[in-house]
């Protein structure tokens, strides 16, 4: 799955570069789910810039088409701030991460492992970018 992420992220132009920032998962040994979420959430939030536009990937978030995502991407690019996408681990995202998010998006009502979600997200961002450029990659 790493190869898939790297392939699509390499295709993105410099003005829409994608950087994967992974946080160390919290230890589950003797910790409650709430404690794990809190620690992981703190680690995520520490890596986000103060002016970043934050998008949480959340099963309860808004679903949208690739065309709508393309419009969102175009808007984010026009505003010029970095966009941070938060992908939760096995227990999801901490409430503090959801509170920091300006938007919540859902890729599906299904639950996927976070390694797969990152590939799906970067492919959709690439597809959205190609729509903006009028590139034939998206033939939906």
Q: Could you explain how this protein is built, in words?
A:
The chain has a single domain, classed as SPOUT methyltransferase, trefoil knot domain (Alpha/beta knot). By secondary structure, it is α/β, with parallel strands linked by helices. The mean pLDDT is 94. 46% of the residues lie in helices and 13% in strands. It is built from 5 helices and 3 strands. Strands 2-1-3 form a 3-stranded parallel sheet. Helix 1 packs parallel to helix 5 and helix 3 crosses helix 5 (114-133).
Report low-confidence residues grouped into runs of 5 or more: none
CATH class: Alpha Beta
Number of helices: 5
According to CATH, the fold-level topology is: Alpha/beta knot
Number of strands: 3
Total number of distinct structural domains: 1
Distance between the termini: 24 Å
Q: Could you report the average pLDDT, rounded to the nearest whole number?
A: 94
SSE-based structural type? alpha/beta
Mind summarizing the main beta sheet? 3 strands, parallel
* Helix residue percentage: 40-55%
Offer a concise description of the structure.
The chain has 140 residues and is of the alpha/beta class.
Give the SSE map.
Elements: H1 2-11, H2 33-46, E1 53-62, H3 66-79, E2 83-87, H4 95-100, E3 103-105, H5 114-133
Parallel strand pairs: 1-2, 1-3
Helix pairs in contact: 1-5, 3-5
């Amino acid at each position: 799955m790493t190869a898939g992420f790297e392939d699509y992220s390499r295709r993105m132009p410099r003005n829409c570069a994608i950087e994967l920032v992974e946080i160390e998962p919290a230890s589950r040994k003797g910790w409650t789910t709430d404690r794990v979420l809190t620690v992981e959430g703190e680690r995520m939030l520490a890596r986000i810039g103060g002016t970043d536009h934050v998008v949480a990937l959340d099963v309860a978030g808004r679903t949208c088409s690739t065309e709508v995502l393309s419009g969102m991407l175009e808007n984010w690019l026009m505003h010029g701030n970095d966009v941070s996408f938060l992908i939760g681990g096995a227990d999801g995202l901490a409430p503090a991460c959801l509170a920091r998010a300006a938007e919540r998006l859902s890729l599906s009502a299904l639950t996927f492992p976070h390694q797969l979600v990152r590939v799906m997200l970067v492919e959709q961002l690439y597809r959205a970018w190609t729509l903006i450029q009028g590139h034939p990659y998206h033939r939906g």
